[in-house]
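Before the break, one more example. Copy the sequence into your notebook; we will annotate it together after we see the structure.
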Amino acid sequence: MIVNVWDDWNSNSKTNFITAVVITGGASGIGAEAARLFTEHGARVVITDVKDELGRNVAVSIGEDKVSYVHCDVRKETEVESAVKFAVEKHGRIDVIFSNAGVPEPLLDIRDLNLEAFDRVMAVNVRGAAAFIKHVARAMVEKKTRGSIVCTTSVASVIAGTVVPHGYTASKHALVGLIRSAAGDLGKHGIRVNGVAPFGVATPLVCEGYKIKMEASELEEIFSETANLKGIVLKARHVAEAALFLASDDSAYVSGHNLLVDGGFSVVKN
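Here is what the structure looks like once it is written out:
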């Protein structure tokens, strides 16, 4: 359960305290599951995305008293700043940011690398995360909130090969570097920064990323065949649970860590 005991001024009123969470890429997949899970643990959530109809539907399905939706293209710093400002004005502060927005790209030989697609992946997966870390960190420091910043990385952040696109792999390696750098900078403010690195999850975005249209169940079969850990299929909920752990006081002294949720895949494939 999320019970924020980081802030001294709130130490005598934990029972009535509502943790304020921002989740990017919250309109579907891991982000939507995280919104559901965090609210189940008492949080009030602001989700951001560029898919407005889906984002508003998630908010309505969970309850608009618990979840608010804000349009935000993470590539545009002004929109990031506005989303952070909205969350602070609505909830008085931000305790947790789950920077989850990300995009895939076509799987191509490096000799055929599409640099426009590469630039888009880097802009969303790295620059977008950097923008949110920047503005959320400002809000946390200003409010003296000793909060938690969590970013969705990937098993591709620790391995490389021919099964994951080059730009995506590069972006996730870069994101881990950003997480570690930010953890080193923000530690003096009591702010923790971590990553959660899942194996393949058949989210709508991943399904759309494949050239041949594929149902989630079909993609899950492919992932399960290559997975190290058998007998369980990785779902968005599992990743959301790992993010919840990193956001909560259960990981109060964990920072600069990239938590692998890959069933040991990177251990045996590295």
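The chain is about 45% helix and 15% strand. Confidence is low (pLDDT under 50) at residues 1-17. Try to locate both features in your own notes.
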